[in-house]
């Protein structure tokens, strides 16, 4: 199939605005963002980049992240990689831009200092590694989750009985082996041989594990789940690195993989599986108790704090928890509540739009970003609207808190609302919803939470989102520099 010209055009438009091919050190993507390693961030033309029709926003983190949205990013990334590989452009391509050397140096130094202070803590680096392990699994989780939902719907309706077993196998196949993929990605992320990490993690899901007794109890296939696979693969990496240092080079090809799998495998069977199984069970029990006992209060806190967690990068710590809950219960009860933060963000943006009727710049940003916000892509609204304005970010959190409280209240009444995959939120989460009641009730509770989040975010922002000086300053349309009235010359 020939590449879409629009996709290639988007990639071609982005490349010079990030400093050219010579400024790009790495290219990757997640669900919504093109993630670039750049040599010199001062060469990025950020305003021009944001102005591109396909670009929904930008985020500066350990990589420079360009928000393109789900689907689009998966198509643009290979085109961008091809352009980088084929173009000899250098980071000096934009050096002739109308900026002084002093401005470039100051800006570059400030950006580097800010990034170093914000993103180089050991804890954040660890969370980023966790994210790098699990984020590549999200497309499979989404696909299998939707198929599982379709299978459940057909089962309830009694339709296509011959197809139902096939759909069940397709949906469950990946989840039954997810530990292997986690082990593979973990070893890759921590600097080991990926296939050895996958081989050790595969022990956890091997059916024959049921014949083994550890700590006085029979082990069961899958015990410990993704947490056990994560620990087993990390252990395998350290064993492998030890072997590389001490095993003679002539015997390395035979002894290193053998000792890595053997030592890590024995520790996994007679230690990690039991411990990780207990931790996984505790996570599931805590999540269920939190929502059944805490109800609206727990949902209020979770929904209200999620946007700040995203800002701090701490939301990445929740990825293994979501995956563990999906592995145990077939859905995570935390994600629908946390998704309410996006609803509060949408409501807040709508209020900003209404409160600033004459600010054409901000209103244009909201118009372009709001559709993505409804679909759960919140970065354009966060970084383009609420966070720069300050107070609307706080009121957006309030909207998310009320939406989370609504969903948490129904959890306390026994109506669990869960997601069969991680990644999407907003309206995009509807196909992935599951729970302990009927599909109709689950959708109604989640939809009700979104509505509450929209309304609460709107009202909180409309009433409390602006001070009078802010309104006076922002309630005018920006005047382009070339048309701005000139001050009369003094004589």
From TrEMBL:
GO terms for cellular component: plasma membrane. Residues 8-90 form the PTS EIIB type-1 domain. Its main location: membrane. It is found in: Cell membrane. The chain crosses the membrane at residues 130-150, 162-183, 195-216, 222-239, 251-276, 296-319, 331-354, 366-386, 393-413, 443-464. Residues 128-480 form the PTS EIIC type-1 domain. GO terms for biological process: phosphoenolpyruvate-dependent sugar phosphotransferase system. It is a multi-pass membrane protein. The keyword Kinase applies. Keywords: Cell membrane, Kinase, Membrane, Phosphotransferase system, Sugar transport, Transferase, Transmembrane, Transmembrane helix, Transport. Gene3D superfamilies: Glucose permease domain IIB. Pfam families: PTS_EIIB, PTS_EIIC. It comes from the Bacteria. InterPro entries: Glu_permease_IIB, PTrfase_EIIB_Cys, PTS_EIIC, PTS_EIIC_1, PTS_IIB_1, PTS_Sugar-Specific_Components. The active site is at 30 (phosphocysteine intermediate). One of its GO terms (molecular function) is protein-phosphocysteine-N-acetylmuramate phosphotransferase system transporter activity. PANTHER family: PHOSPHOTRANSFERASE SYSTEM TRANSPORT PROTEIN (PTHR30175), PTS SYSTEM N-ACETYLMURAMIC ACID-SPECIFIC EIIBC COMPONENT (PTHR30175:SF3). This is PTS alpha-glucoside transporter subunit IIA.
């Amino acid at each position: 199939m020939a590449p879409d010209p629009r996709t290639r055009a988007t990639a071609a438009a982005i490349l010079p605005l990030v400093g050219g091919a010579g400024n790009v050190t790495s290219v990757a993507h997640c669900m919504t963002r093109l993630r670039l390693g750049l040599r010199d961030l001062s060469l990025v033309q950020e305003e021009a980049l944001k102005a591109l029709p396909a670009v929904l926003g930008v985020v500066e983190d350990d990589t420079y992240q360009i928000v393109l949205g789900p689907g689009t990013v998966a198509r643009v990334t290979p085109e961008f990689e091809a352009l980088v590989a084929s173009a000899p452009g250098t980071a000096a391509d934009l050096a002739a831009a109308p900026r002084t050397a002093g401005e470039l140096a100051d800006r570059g130094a400030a950006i580097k200092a800010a990034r170093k202070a914000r993103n180089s803590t050991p804890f954040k680096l660890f969370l980023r590694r966790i994210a790098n392990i699990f984020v590549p699994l999200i497309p499979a989780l989404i696909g299998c989750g939707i198929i599982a939902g379709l299978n459940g719907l057909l089962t309830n309706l009694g339709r296509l009985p011959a197809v139902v077993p096939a759909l069940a196998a397709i949906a469950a196949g990946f989840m039954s082996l997810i530990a292997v993929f986690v082990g593979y990605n973990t070893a890759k992320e921590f600097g080991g041989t990926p296939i050895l990490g996958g081989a050790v993690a595969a022990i956890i899901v091997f059916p024959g594990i049921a014949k083994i007794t550890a700590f006085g109890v029979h082990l069961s296939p899958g015990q410990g789940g993704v947490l056990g696979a994560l620990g087993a693969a990390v252990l395998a990496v350290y064993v492998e690195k030890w072997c590389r240092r001490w095993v003679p080079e002539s015997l390395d090809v035979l002894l290193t993989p053998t000792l890595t799998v053997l030592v890590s495998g024995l520790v996994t069977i007679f230690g990690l599986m039991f411990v990780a199984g207990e931790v996984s069970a505790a996570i599931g029990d805590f999540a269920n108790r939190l929502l059944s006992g805490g109800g609206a209060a727990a949902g209020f806190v979770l929904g209200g704090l999620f946007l700040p967690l995203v800002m701090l990068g701490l939301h990445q710590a929740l990825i293994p928890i979501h995956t563990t809950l999906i592995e145990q219960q077939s859905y995570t009860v935390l994600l629908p509540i946390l998704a309410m933060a996006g609803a509060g963000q949408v409501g807040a943006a709508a209020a900003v739009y209404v409160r600033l009727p004459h600010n054409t710049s901000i209103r244009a940003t909201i118009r372009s970003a709001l559709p993505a916000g409804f679909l759960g892509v919140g970065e354009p609204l966060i970084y383009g609207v609420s966070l720069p304005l300050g107070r609307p970010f706080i009121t957006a959190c309030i909207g998310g808190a009320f939406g989370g409280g609504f969903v948490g209240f129904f959890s306390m009444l026994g109506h669990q609302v869960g997601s069969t995959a991680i990644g999407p939120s907003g309206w995009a989460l509807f196909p992935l919803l599951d729970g302990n009641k009927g599909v109709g009730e689950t959708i109604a509770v989640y939809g009700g939470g979104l509505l509450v989040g929209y309304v609460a975010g709107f009202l909180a922002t409309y009433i409390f989102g602006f001070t009078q000086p802010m309104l006076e300053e922002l309630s005018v349309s920006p005047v382009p520099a070339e048309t701005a009235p000139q001050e009369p010359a003094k004589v």
